[in-house]
Design goal:
mainly alpha; 2 domains; globular; disordered N terminus
């Protein structure tokens, strides 16, 4: 009986204490939140001010959680949040082995055993890095006068892939073992040696041309007509992928308007015209009659798709606008290829 009475007294005391604490929080003046939303944190470069406010705000942990939940994943953001979390009042003691923190007006200086850093400068660097990640600098708009047609053709190609090519490739993958499909892919890649070799020469990339010649010789002989890739496995010789579109871009020819080709996907005027000389450098064109050549090309595409099942869906699932996403990705990819 006495034990129960003691338990009741302790529980009553806890309830009173919790009630008084809740009342004090509710009736206390509301403080302006120091944490920032994704929008105004993106505009802020004074991290010292943010850290100082967070240390004076009793809702420090809540602020950090809000920042984490309101902003996208970012390596710069994670570094900033780790810095915020390390700036809790427990770490700000003057006798801390990590050093002492001194508040100076809106900026906070950090003095440690290894020297001192001005957090306002740190904040500016953090803000600049974050801005680089959110907005691409010096980004040129893609010339797209055919956007209406391009959107229609993007939708058409998407349905052809999802309703025809992808199901066929999945069935083919179910029947044919992976090592066979990889061997077929190696064979078709080795077959395109003339395309890569000639365009490396046209771009005065003699090293690339030499590597391509060595790869073709080794893979065609030891690799049994290219079914295996000993040049890569034994000697780490990677292919130098070049085409006539890259050659024109290398010599300064502009991309021209963006064009989506039926079945082939995103392109531009320069690359679309370049498919003509690329076609004549492709040994598959010697397959006769044309119907058999077309069948060989379709089989090559099915085999290649079977080795990359699900990648297309993963790429496009997070795109807000599928057409502009593929358009911009393609143009940036081609620019990078030409630079390399």
């Amino acid at each position: 009986m006495l034990f129960r009475l003691r338990v009741i007294v302790v529980l009553g005391w806890l309830l009173i204490d919790l009630g008084s604490t809740a009342y004090a929080v509710v009736t206390s003046p509301q403080q302006t939140p120091i944490y920032r939303t994704s929008e105004n944190l993106h505009q802020s470069t004074n991290l010292g001010e943010t850290l100082q406010g967070l240390r004076s705000n009793p809702s420090h942990d809540q602020g950090v959680e809000t920042i984490q939940s309101n902003l996208p994943k970012s390596k710069f953001l994670n570094e900033g949040i780790e810095l915020v979390q390390s700036s809790t009042p427990d770490n700000l003691q003057s006798n801390s082995p990590q050093g002492r923190y001194i508040a100076q007006n809106e900026n906070t200086a950090v003095e440690g055993t290894g020297g001192s850093e001005d957090l306002s400068q740190e904040g500016e660097e953090f803000g600049e890095d974050l801005e680089d990640e959110f907005a691409a600098k010096d980004k040129k708009d893609v010339w797209d006068p055919l956007s209406g047609y391009n959107r229609f053709m993007t939708s058409f190609n998407d349905k052809v892939f999802l309703w025809l090519l992808d199901p066929v490739a999945r069935g083919y993958r179910f029947i044919i073992p992976e090592f066979v499909r990889k061997g077929v892919g190696n064979f078709f890649h080795n077959l395109l040696f003339p395309l890569r070799f000639v365009n490396n020469l046209l771009q005065v990339k003699f090293k690339g041309a030499g590597v391509e010649l060595a790869r073709f010789t080794l893979n065609t002989t030891v690799g049994i007509l290219g079914l295996w890739d000993p040049a890569r496995v034994w000697f780490d010789l990677e292919p130098y992928e070049e085409d006539f579109g890259q050659t024109l871009g290398y010599w300064g020819v502009g991309a021209g308007p963006h064009i989506v080709l039926p079945f082939l996907g995103p392109s531009n005027l320069r690359d679309a015209i370049s498919t003509i000389p690329d076609y004549y450098l492709d040994p598959k064109r010697f397959v006769d009659p044309y119907e058999k050549e077309l069948a060989v090309r379709v089989y090559e595409e099915v085999n290649d798709t079977s080795l990359h099942i699900g990648e297309y869906q993963n790429i496009k699932k997070d795109a807000l606008d599928q057409y502009t996403f593929f358009r911009d990705s393609y143009e940036q990819y081609r620019i990078q290829q030409i630079k390399e």
